[in-house]
From TrEMBL:
Lineage: Bacteria, Bacillati, Actinomycetota, Actinomycetes, Bifidobacteriales
Reaction catalyzed: 2-(N(omega)-L-arginino)succinate = fumarate + L-arginine
Name the record gives this protein: Argininosuccinate lyase
Gene: argH
PANTHER family: ARGININOSUCCINATE LYASE
GO biological process, one term: L-arginine biosynthetic process via ornithine
Length: 466
């Protein structure tokens, strides 16, 4: 037999169709443990306010312990007719404690303040699991960067060769956004650490309960200041959802890079067998499915966020049933990230670079043209002209089908003739090497080896306390 948490003023039960629409147990049952923890804290608040005697409180706590045991063992599980997790747990409690005692627990609370509290409790715990997994990924990126040492590669803008960079520099460019995502979760947690319990349905409660004690018992730092806000706002759920979507996007951008590097044409990276997949028809195939799934799942994570924002938009500010729709979005995001991250980290940790090929490609495509222009600036040529002269070098090289370092001293003397003495013109060769180019980018955040070593140390300092 099912129970309902309402019905006194109704002459008939809910229609079958309504019950099916209304029901959320199939997805909110995962909040059951947090709900029982909330019920324990609430029972104590009722006891302190004199609504449960010492003996009743003791029996209530025993009953809740027993309920938790039955939930853990599976002896108690939701049934078809339970509208939501709260309804199921009330049924379980009544069966253990009896109607007389069990029926006292709901005083002074509503499923509105309950569910708003539970989603915060659950998300705060998941945020820690996600942050730990992202931290593992960041560590794997730092390890790969350290292992790459002084290796160089083509740096690209618009996907075209731009300037050579250290492989470590390129990899670390993916670590920083991920570190900021972890930081975002930490910041978010401080804002989510306020308990709505005690807000009641919207206006607060009349029973003299102490919501602060409840909040502390449930791991919150304080109580929400406004009971309507406490029960009706979901900006914190949406903010969590944004960070989850952003993580998806950040991982997707690294995925895209790995997919390109792993093509036969690039051949910059080889994925470990344990983290690649084959084809059912083409025996030679080794596919970067983890990176592709990561890229694909980013779309889904974004969809969860936009769906949630659309649900919230235009809601009048107090509880409305629309808010039941907040949960599946973030549940899906958490499930997605917790499956994706370990696989993705394994792929990153085990991928092997073809440093020789990367180095051979690094200076090609006239990637040292900026170095020529900046060398000219150091010879006091105004940058506007230096840019023109370097462009001229590129034009000549391109016409001949050679690279910049294949131009002769006479070429450089004649191209620079209006600005430089013949005796100094060929000095430009000093910057026509990949390492010369990379190591001259000494400004803070630049790709010079010393700067990248500092950068990796700074990243480690950032992640160690996390
Ligand atoms: N299951 C609902 C939710 O997830 C909580 C129940 C509130 N229902 C109500 N009729 N006030 O939001």
């Amino acid at each position: 037999e099912g129970i309902a948490l309402w019905g006194g003023r109704f002459t008939s039960g809910p229609s079958e169709a309504l019950a099916r629409l209304s029901k959320s147990t199939q997805f909110d049952w995962r909040l059951a443990d947090d709900d029982i923890a909330g019920s324990r804290a609430h029972a104590r608040a009722l006891g302190r306010a004199g609504h449960l005697s010492a003996d009743e409180l003791e029996r209530m706590e025993d009953a809740l312990d027993e309920l938790q045991r039955q939930v853990d063992s599976g002896a108690f599980a939701p049934q078809e007719s339970d509208e939501d997790e709260a309804t199921a747990l009330e049924r379980g409690l009544l069966a253990i404690a009896g109607d007389e005692l069990g029926g006292k627990l709901r005083a002074g609370r509503s499923r509105n303040d309950q569910i708003a509290t539970l989603i915060r409790m659950w998300l705060r715990r998941q945020a820690r699991f996600i942050a730990a997994d992202v931290l593992d990924l960041v560590r794997a990126i730092i390890e790969q960067s350290k292992a790459a040492d002084r290796a160089v590669m083509p740096g690209r803008t618009h996907m075209q060769h731009a300037q050579p960079v250290l492989v470590a520099h390129q990899l670390m460019a993916h670590a920083w956004p991920l570190m900021r995502d972890i930081q975002r979760l930490v910041d978010w947690d401080a804002r989510a650490a306020f308990s709505p319990y005690g807000s009641g349905a919207l206006a607060g409660n009349t029973l003299g309960l102490d919501p602060h004690a409840v909040a502390l018992e449930l791991g919150f730092s304080d109580v929400t200041e406004n009971s309507i806000d406490g029960t009706a706002s979901r900006d914190l759920v949406a903010e969590f959802s944004f960070v989850a979507a952003m993580l998806g996007v950040d991982i997707s951008r690294l995925s895209e890079e790995i997919i390109i590097w792993n093509t036969q044409e690039f051949a910059f990276v080889r994925l470990d067998d344990a983290y690649s997949t084959g084809s059912s028809i083409m025996p030679q195939k080794k596919n970067p499915d983890i990176a592709e799934l990561a890229r694909g799942k980013a779309g889904r994570l974004i969809g969860d966020l936009t769906g949630l924002l659309a649900t919230l938009k235009g809601l009048p500010t107090a509880y409305a049933r629309d808010l039941q729709e907040d949960k599946e979005a973030v549940f899906d995001q958490v499930d997605t990230l917790l499956v994706l991250l370990p696989a993705f980290t394994g792929m990153v940790a085990t991928m092997q670079f073809n440093f020789e090929r990367m180095e051979a490609e690094a200076p090609t495509g006239f990637a040292l043209a900026t170095d020529i222009a900046e060398w000219l600036v150091k010879q006091k040529v105004p940058f506007r002209h230096a840019h023109e002269l370097s462009g001229e070098c590129v034009r000549v090289a391109e016409e001949r089908g050679v690279e910049l370092w294949d131009l002769t001293d006479e070429d450089y003397v004649s191209i620079f003739a209006d600005f430089l003495d013949a005796s100094v013109a060929s000095g430009v060769r000093s910057v026509l090497s990949t390492l010369g180019s990379v190591n001259s980018r000494l400004g803070k955040g630049g790709t010079a080896y010393e700067r990248v070593v500092e950068q990796m140390a700074a990243a480690e300092e950032t992640v160690i306390p996390l």
